[in-house]
Write a structure and sequence with these properties.
Strands 6-8-9-11-10 form a five-stranded mixed sheet, covered by helices on one side. The protein has a four-stranded antiparallel sheet with strand order 2-1-4-3, with helices on one face. Helix 1 (3-75) crosses helix 5 and helix 9 packs parallel to helix 10. The chain is built from twelve helices and eleven strands. It has helices spanning 3-75, 79-90, 101-105, 126-159, 170-183, 240-245, 252-308, 316-348, 360-377, 397-413, 447-450, 474-484; strands at residues 191-195, 201-204, 217-221, 231-236, 355-359, 381-386, 392-396, 422-430, 433-440, 488-494, 498-506. The protein is of the alpha+beta class and 509 residues long. It folds into three domains: 1-77 and 146-250, no CATH class; 251-343, Helix Hairpins (Orthogonal Bundle), CATH 1.10.287; 352-506, Heat Shock Protein 90.
């Protein structure tokens, strides 16, 4: 499958996941908003009912007090007053003596006692009488209603003359509020306080705290009274946010699973792309290895054939030359095989690492002397500035030598054709570390390639330069060995101007 196809499929699936997450987020937001609105409506309804019950209870108490006073006064009146009252009642029309209060209330008047406006005249028709009767009933109703309203207003006005604290039974208020909230399906802990018309707090519940008071609900008390006699009930819920957000807990697991699936999908795509890249690099490695092995094998085979061909006369110089070719190509082939085997052992964790104390300056100086000839053969110069005063490190000497050799060999491979190679290696001591720098003026490394140069099988694209040999294992081997030496390595490069490798190793204490 092509990489563009993988990216296209990944983009479509990723976009679908993103849309699904966005949709779930909106659903959760809508559910939380709806829950909050229902909560607000229920609390306000409960507060309104509590306020009404408070006013109703006050009115009932006031009426009970009036009834008790009237009963007390009636019981203390003389017996002659009671008799006279009954007689006066019985004189209203031609009625029979009533034995019970119910009979007294339902006494029937004779037509002679009715108002003249309702007396039927022989010349009046029934419709006129009916109309006059309706007008009479309507006027009587308005009169009685006005009297009743005046009585009730007087009762409420007289009740409001009491002190604001005396008008409220705070235990009953708390009990009513709890019942109304429970009836609305809100069993949450709440705190409330009562304020008078001046905003002064006159009461607060025993367990009152300010937690959650930044969002409180208020309700006017005695709203039918004059404004200077009204009060204010303020309620807040410490656990309101958790209650409102609790509705999201039912959808939250789905959202979490969706996120997990999205992350897993992204990781899977990353693995697929990386595996595809590794596969491409391995194929490139196999092709390079084939060409690398083919050249020395061909040289050895040709030299061996010439030595074995009896038809060709061989001088001593020719035999020495052919023998030298066989030996050199054999060394080259063994070096390539050894590099592959060492990298394989490193990947498996079975590489041998014999650490001992060495002088880095001395080892690097030997590598420079050995590599000097190869640099000169390619028309370049090699300089060394081994200025580290203390260069004692605890590493494997063979692998440390290979690290320096590989870095210098890369500099020769990636030299510029238009300018002679200049390779410089330095050592310095920084606090408790030894810093080794290998710098060249070669073709350099592009920024996109710089972050992959230590990957296995990765080879930097060299443009028109096709004579660069290798498996893409050299720098991966260098990075692995430096890590085993408890050090670090980084590369700095500017394309077209050169590359610098900086190795930092801990000094021997």
């Amino acid at each position: 499958m092509k990489r563009t196809t993988i990216f296209a499929i990944s983009f479509i699936i990723g976009l679908s996941f993103f849309g699904l997450l966005l949709l779930q987020g909106r659903i959760i937001t809508s559910m939380v908003k709806m829950r909050k609105e229902q909560f607000d409506e229920t609390v306000l309804r409960a507060l309104d009912r509590t306020s009404r019950d408070l006013e109703r209870n006050e009115t009932f108490r006031y009426l009970e007090n009036i009834a008790q006073k009237m009963n007390y006064n009636a019981d203390n009146l003389p017996e002659e007053v009671h008799t006279q009252s009954v007689e006066n009642t019985l004189e209203l029309g031609d009625t029979t003596a009533l034995e019970t209060p119910f009979q007294l209330k339902t006494q029937v008047r004779k037509p002679a006692m009715l108002p003249k406006s309702l007396a039927l005249n022989s010349s009046s028709n029934i419709d006129d009488a009916n109309q006059r009767f309706q007008e009479y009933v309507h006027n009587a109703y308005l009169y009685q209603k006005g009297l009743l309203d005046e009585v009730i207003y007087t009762i409420l006005y007289n009740a409001s003359d009491k002190d604001f604290r005396e008008r409220i039974d705070f235990r009953l208020l708390n009990s009513t509020l709890r019942s109304e909230l429970a009836a609305g399906g809100i069993p949450l802990t709440y705190h409330f306080s009562v304020l008078d018309a001046n905003g002064q707090e006159v009461y607060r519940c025993a367990d009152y705290t300010d937690e959650g008071s930044e969002y409180s609900y208020t309700q006017t008390l005695f709203r039918n009274d004059p404004s200077q006699k009204m009060g204010l009930l303020r309620v807040h819920f410490p656990d309101m946010n958790s209650y409102v957000m609790g509705v999201a807990s039912k959808v939250l697991p789905v959202l979490v699973f969706t996120v997990v699936l999205f992350v897993t999908f992204c990781f899977t795509v990353w693995l697929i792309v990386r595996q595809k890249r590794d596969t491409e690099m391995k194929n490139d490695f196999i092709n390079n290895m084939t060409h690398e092995f083919k050249t020395p094998i061909s040289s050895i085979s040709l030299a061996a054939q010439m030595l074995g061909d009896k038809s060709i006369s061989k001088s001593e110089a020719m035999i020495d030359n052919l023998s030298s070719v066989i030996v050199n190509e054999t060394k080259r082939l063994r070096y390539q095989v050894e590099k592959v085997l060492q990298m394989s052992l490193y990947e498996k964790g079975n590489i041998r690492f014999n650490e001992r104390e060495i002088d880095a300056n001395s080892v690097i100086d030997d590598v420079v002397k050995t590599f000097q000839l190869k640099v000169k053969q390619n028309g370049g110069t090699l300089t060394a500035q081994l200025d580290a005063e203390d260069a004692a490190i605890y590493v494997d000497e063979m692998h440390f030598t290979n690290v320096i050799f590989n870095l210098m060999d890369n500099a020769v491979k990636y030299r510029r054709d238009d300018e002679p190679l200049h390779l410089n290696i330095t050592t310095q001591t920084h606090d408790t570390h030894l810093v080794v720098t290998v710098a060249d003026n070669g073709i350099g490394i592009k920024h996109d390639d710089l972050k992959h140069i230590f990957d296995r099988f990765y080879r930097v694209h060299t443009g028109n330069k096709h004579d660069v040999k290798g498996f893409g294992l050299g720098l991966a081997y260098v990075k692995g060995m430096v890590d085993l030496m408890h050090g670090t390595i980084k590369a700095e490069s500017e394309y077209g101007k050169g590359t610098k490798f900086i190795i930092t190793l801990p000094l021997l204490e």
